[in-house]
Specification:
The protein is of the alpha+beta class. It has one helix spanning 2-39; strands at residues 40-44, 59-63, 77-81, 89-96, 101-104, 110-112, 115-116, 134-137, 142-146, 164-165, 171-178, 184-185.
């Protein structure tokens, strides 16, 4: 009889341990799901449009929370879905803000409300001279975005991208996590 009681106690102890482990794993999965859904997510750069700031295959973390409480600022690097692609996302830099008039001339010079935009965010922009001049007036909640590599960037100058609405911006790229040699914050 003593062995029977010890066996039951051992079985109960094993069941408690299994249940504890299962609950722990469920909590980890739930927190991970909530974190990825509402706070941050990893994304990978595809292409050259943000060179020299970001490179093909760079792995980034995207802050999905801050734009719920504030608006994107000029020069933020944002992620948004491409309207004509399945699960395709673009990463571009905010150039024009709601209510502004943005003009990009034939030499690639950007004007905001008639004044030349001084781009000073740490990376030299690769301009795109010879491209058609663009001028757009941004409405409330609209942003004009461009890649840093203007020669190889499909951005707000392209009719298939156009102006980006705040509600469509998934978040702000804030840290490069791979390659490890360039790990750190993003300008």
């Amino acid at each position: 009889m003593e062995n029977s009681i010890k066996e039951k106690q051992a079985a109960n102890s094993a069941m408690r341990e299994i249940l504890s482990t299962v609950l722990y794993l469920l909590a980890v999965f739930a927190l991970t799901f909530l974190f990825i859904t509402f706070v941050a997510q990893r994304t990978e750069v595809s292409g050259q449009s943000m060179e020299p700031t970001l490179h093909d295959k760079d792995s980034l973390l995207v802050d999905k929370l801050s734009y719920r409480f504030s608006d994107p600022k000029r020069f933020d690097i944002v992620i948004f879905p491409y309207q004509y692609g399945d699960d395709q996302y673009f990463i571009k830099r905010v150039i024009g803000l709601p209510g502004e008039t943005v003009r990009v001339d034939y030499d690639g010079v950007i004007y905001i409300n008639g004044e030349i935009l001084k781009e000073n965010y740490g990376a030299e922009v690769i301009k795109d001279p010879g491209r058609a001049e663009t001028e757009v007036e941004l409405k409330e909640g609209e942003y004009f975005v461009m890649g840093d590599n203007r020669n190889h960037s499909m951005d707000s100058r392209d009719i298939s991208v156009g102006n980006i609405k705040k509600k469509d911006i998934l978040g702000k790229a804030f840290i490069r996590i791979y390659p490890f040699s360039t790990f750190g914050g993003i300008n």
